[in-house]
Structure formats: C-alpha cells, structure tokens
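Progress note, sequence design subtask.
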C-alpha cells in the first residue's frame, strides 16, 4: 500500500533509523508520521540494501554472450532444430529477435564456408573408405557418402543425385584430385558402386561388406523359422480335429488339407531344413571372422574359401527339401554368396602374408596362441597394446604388426552406416539437405570429440592424424564463440 509521505520525508526517516537506532525511535516515527511499524521496517531494509548495492559490492564484469551466428548454427546442428524452432528458442531463451530470412542467410554462408573446408581436407597416409548411398524422398536419387573406415572422418557427402555408376565415378575422381589416396574401399555390393570401382581402381582392392551378406542369411533363416511355426500351428489344429472325430464330436471349421501323418512328415522335413540352414549360416558367420582358429592353427584365405564353398554346396543340397517358396529363398542366398565370395574374403587374403611371416618366425602354435588371445582381447586387453605387455619380450617385435593387422582388418562398411544415423534426424526435420547443410554436418562430425568408448577423447580428425589446429568446428569455420 502506497503511503502519502513524500520521498524527502522517507529519506529522513530511513536516515534516522540507520544513524540513531535508539530504543523507541520506530514507535516515535510511526506516531509522528502516521506510518505503521511494518512499513518503516520495510523501508529500512530497502534503504540498507540500496546503500550496500551502491557502496559495498564491486561491479562484476558482464559476461560476453555467444554470437548470434554461433547460436543459430549450434541449435541447427546440435539439436536438429528447424529454422522456426531456432527463431522461437532465441527469442524465448536469449531475448534475441531474428527473422527466418536472417537465419537462412546465416546457414547459407556457413554452408559455403563448410564446403570450402571440406575441399581442403588432406591426409598423408592411404585410407580405407566406406561407400554407400542413403536414399532420399526423390525417386531414384540418393545421398552419396564416403567415410573413413577406421576414424569415421567424412571425406565426401553429396546431395541427392542419380544412383548410377557415373555419379560414383565422378565423386571418386573428385576425391582423387583432392589428394586422397585410397588403400581400399568397402561397400554393400551395390551395382552402381561396383561399376564405378571397376572404372576407377578395379575390383582387386574392393571389399564386400560381410554384415550385409550375414543380414541376408538372417532374413532367410527368419522366413524358414516362421514357416516352421506356421506348419506347427497347423499341426495342432489337425490334432484337435482328429481328437474330436475320435470322440464322436462334430468337427469345426474347414477340413484340413493334409492328414495328421502327412502334416507330421511335412513339419519334420521343414524343421530339418531350417536347422540345416541355421547350422550353415552360423558356420559362415564363424568363417568370416577376422581370425579363425581350427585344429590349433589359424585358417588362411584358401582354407576359408574351401569352407564357404562347402557351405554353398550344402545349401544347394538342402534347398530342394524346402517348400517351393522357400526353395527360391535358399537359392537366392547361395547365389549371392557365390557372387560375392572373392570380394568377401579380400580382408583374409591381405592377412595371409603377415600371418605366414610371423608363423615362420615364431611358429604355428605361437600364432594360434596370439589369435586366441586377440579374440579375447576384451577380457585380456582390452587393447592390443595391453596384450603385448603380457607376451614374452622375444615375441613382441613380431607380434606387434600382426596384432595391428588384425585390428585394422576391413570387413564392413559400418562407418558409413553410422554417418547415415547422424544424417537421418536432420532429414526428418528438413525433408531434404542441401550441399551446404551436409557440409556443415560433416565439419561438425569431424571435429566432434567422442565422449566414451575406445576412442573417448578423440575426434575423427585426430584419429586420422590430421594436423588441424582448430578443435572446435565453429572456430574451424571462422566463427567466434563469443560476441565482440
């Protein structure tokens, strides 16, 4: 409640209370000026606080605020925000009013800087590259991506183009002009990628992704298992019908197409096929591991190829035993494995020379022991360097390059699949991504420090061995993290 006293009168009362805090002064001032005691105490507190703020506290320097461009780009990339979401967040959280056109211009300029940065990427050592397409909403078009297998660094990411050999050939030529030396490539075996690889470097250094083949095998196995379950459920129905007939009750539903003995024979045959294919697929999974131990020795590429050829022959034998629809599935699996066999075992052929060299120096049993330990490195290591510390000194010089070769073996294009998972949320927000926005994502990803895992504390650039001085992606693009 406002009091009718003037400001000068209030200042005098507060001054007396602060200067002469004698007993009864508050009551005297309350009666003289017709002001309640509570109001006087409130004015006293306000006056004391004002004096402390003016004389007692030191003025703290104001904290610099992030630049608007840095805020816009951080929200865009870090939170997958839309332009309108960025506008609302800046207004509500930072008190910054900005138009959608201004946000679009900031992103466009940053995208151009990011594209320029991507063109300047260089590396001194030959790299293993993962290639793959990520299909867009435009029919027949996809984003083309080239990712470093071992570090996860993005070397190229292209907005939607036609998925054909010509598009991939142009992209690989562009990377060659940039100075990127390809040690090997790996992909899921797409026809367009295969055509481009044949023209640019030849199929001799192109690895077929083993996990895509194992995924096809798992799909076929799943169809077999579902068919077995269907026939088992049908057998249960036939058994119930037979029990009702045996007790003289009226049967329900349509009469079964097969008798109980016929259904039992069919179910047993399908279970046999399903279990046979499951065993062969599990053995295929084992043979395609980086290291395969058998009878106390490490299998080379020739022995592995013999094992896979035996698996394919057995698949051809078991296929006729399945029902018509599933026969085609098993035959399709066998065909894909045969076509991809030579490229699938490329990683194993690259390991042969090193394994034979170390076997000649240390012996076959020593290499088998190293392989046994490397396969259990998660428990014994967890890294190869930790394993080396537990080996005899005489073994370490020869064992170190062998363990490194096993660590660096390229079998899959998982790195490019990880990149797809980063791009996918932005596709969901923006529907389509321009070359500039893709480059922004790539620059952010290449500078991102891994928070956990084997690469904790390192960015893809650091894992590649880049000498870039900037560790923050915004700083690399020339943006100050603080406003001037």
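Output:
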């Amino acid at each position: 409640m406002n009091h009718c006293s003037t400001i000068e009168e209030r200042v005098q009362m507060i001054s007396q209370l602060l200067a002469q805090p004698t007993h009864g002064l508050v009551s005297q001032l309350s009666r003289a000026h017709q002001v309640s005691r509570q109001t006087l105490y409130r004015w006293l507190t306000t006056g004391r606080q004002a004096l402390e703020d003016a004389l007692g506290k030191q003025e703290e320097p104001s904290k610099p605020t992030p630049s608007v461009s840095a805020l816009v780009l951080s929200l865009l990339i870090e939170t997958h925000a839309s332009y309108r979401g960025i506008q609302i967040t800046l207004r509500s959280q930072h008190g910054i009013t900005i138009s959608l056109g201004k946000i679009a211009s900031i992103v466009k300029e940053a995208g151009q800087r990011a594209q320029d940065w991507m063109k300047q990427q260089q590396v001194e050592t030959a790299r293993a590259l993962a290639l793959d397409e990520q299909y867009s909403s435009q029919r027949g078009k996809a984003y083309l991506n080239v990712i470093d297998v071992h570090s996860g660094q993005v070397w190229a990411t292209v907005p939607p183009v036609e998925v054909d050999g010509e598009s991939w050939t142009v992209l690989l030529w562009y990377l060659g002009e940039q100075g990127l030396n390809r040690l090997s490539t790996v992909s899921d075996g797409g026809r367009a990628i295969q055509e481009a690889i044949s023209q640019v470097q030849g199929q001799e250094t192109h690895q077929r992704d083993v996990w895509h083949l194992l995924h096809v095998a798992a799909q076929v196995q799943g169809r077999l298992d579902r068919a077995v379950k269907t026939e088992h459920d049908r057998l249960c129905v036939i058994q119930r019908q037979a029990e009702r007939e045996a007790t003289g009750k009226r049967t329900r539903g349509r009469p079964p197409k097969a008798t109980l003995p016929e259904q039992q024979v069919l179910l047993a045959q399908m279970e046999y096929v399903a279990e046979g294919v499951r065993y062969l697929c599990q053995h295929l999974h084992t043979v395609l591991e980086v290291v395969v131990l058998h009878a106390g020795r490490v299998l080379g590429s020739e022995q592995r190829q013999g094992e896979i050829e035996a698996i394919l022959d057995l698949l051809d034998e078991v296929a006729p035993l399945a029902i018509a629809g599933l026969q085609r599935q098993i035959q399709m699996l066998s065909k894909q494995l045969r076509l991809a066999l030579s490229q699938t075992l490329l990683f194993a052929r690259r390991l042969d020379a090193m394994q034979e060299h170390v076997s000649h120096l240390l012996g076959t049993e020593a290499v088998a022991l190293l392989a046994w330990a490397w396969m259990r490195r998660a428990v014994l290591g967890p890294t190869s360097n930790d394993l080396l510390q537990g080996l005899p000194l005489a073994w370490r010089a020869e064992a170190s390059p062998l363990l490194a070769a096993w660590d660096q073996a390229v079998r899959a294009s998982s790195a490019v699949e990880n990149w797809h998972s980063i791009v996918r949320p932005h596709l969901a927000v923006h529907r389509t991504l321009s070359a500039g926005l893709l480059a922004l994502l790539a620059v952010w990803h290449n500078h991102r420090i891994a928070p956990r895992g084997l690469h904790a504390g390192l960015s893809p650039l650091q894992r590649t061995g880049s000498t870039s001085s900037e560790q923050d992606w915004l700083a690399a693009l020339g943006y100050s993290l603080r406003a001037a």
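Residues 210-246 form the longest helix (37 residues). Work on this subtask will continue into the next period as scheduled.
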